[in-house]
């Protein structure tokens, strides 16, 4: 006979708890107050007025100020390697001297130049390559498209009017120093709203995860059905392919 007040039900699995948005898994908004973007109209030159250490980003952030129609405009971009406060950066498409920090369209950047913070489509503000120590290489220009070798060594094509920054993102070597203690990693992950420590699903109890209670370590199917409810939508979600890649 079950005693009064005794709870025999299972608890929410981690994927459900994160989706609910409790304080345990909620994003720490103040860490992401700085928005990285290019203004739509960039002409002339700007000045680096401050370098910011943001806990929500993987590289130092540069605060840039320039004048547009006699008014001061401020925006934020990932800092490049060896950038310092007081540096002058140039923007525009008629630049003859290509230096780190310059912002210009891909069609005007020479081949084999290191770039970062590339726009996915013109004027979207910059989406690709913003992690510390990374950069892409302009490989070739074909008609209306520019091909860039990404940090993954794969080639990706962009519209020639997309903008990018010349140079390498600052903050290289960020992962070289070991955490040593689990507590240090916990606080570093919490600053960026990352779940730590992560427990393997197959090591959980059956009430805690659909993959739980893996007898003999034989996991169930990792491909979740498309109409599965939130508690069961775990594993591989609508994968393009599975299994070992054949060469």
Strand content: 15-25%
Classification by helices and strands: mainly beta
Under CATH, the topology of the domain at 30-91 and 100-166 can be stated as: SH3 type barrels
**CATH architecture designation of the domain at 30-91 and 100-166:** Roll
Structure description:
This protein is mostly beta strands. The chain has a domain at 30-91 and 100-166: SH3 type barrels, CATH 2.30.30.30. 7% of the residues lie in helices and 24% in strands. The chain has helices at residues 14-20, 182-191, and strands spanning 44-52, 61-68, 71-78, 88-91, 103-105, 114-116, 136-142, 145-149, 155-159, 163-166, 223-224, 236-237. The mean pLDDT is 85.
């Amino acid at each position: 006979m079950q005693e009064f007040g005794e709870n025999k039900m299972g608890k929410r699995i981690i994927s459900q708890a994160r989706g609910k948005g409790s304080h345990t898994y909620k994003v720490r908004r103040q860490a992401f107050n700085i928005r990285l973007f290019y203004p739509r109209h960039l002409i002339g030159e700007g000045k680096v007025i401050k370098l910011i250490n943001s806990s929500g980003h993987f590289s130092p952030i540069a605060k840039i100020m320039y004048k547009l129609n006699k008014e001061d405009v401020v925006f934020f971009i990932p800092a490049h390697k060896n950038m310092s406060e007081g540096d002058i950066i140039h923007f525009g498409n008629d630049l003859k001297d290509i230096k780190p920090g310059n912002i210009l369209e891909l069609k005007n950047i020479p081949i084999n130049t290191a770039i970062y913070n590339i726009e996915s489509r013109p004027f979207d503000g910059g989406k690709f390559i913003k992690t510390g120590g990374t950069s892409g290489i302009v490989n070739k220009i074909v008609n209306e498209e520019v091909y860039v070798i990404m940090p993954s060594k794969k080639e990706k094509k962009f519209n020639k009017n997309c903008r990018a920054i010349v140079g390498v993102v600052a903050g290289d070597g960020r992962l070289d120093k070991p955490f040593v203690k689990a507590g240090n990693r916990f606080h570093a992950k919490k600053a960026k709203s990352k779940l730590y420590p992560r427990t393997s699903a197959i090591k959980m109890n059956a009430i805690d995860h659909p993959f739980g209670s893996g007898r003999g370590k034989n996991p169930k199917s990792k491909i979740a059905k498309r109409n599965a409810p939130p508690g069961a939508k775990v594993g591989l979600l609508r994968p393009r392919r599975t299994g070992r890649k054949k060469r």
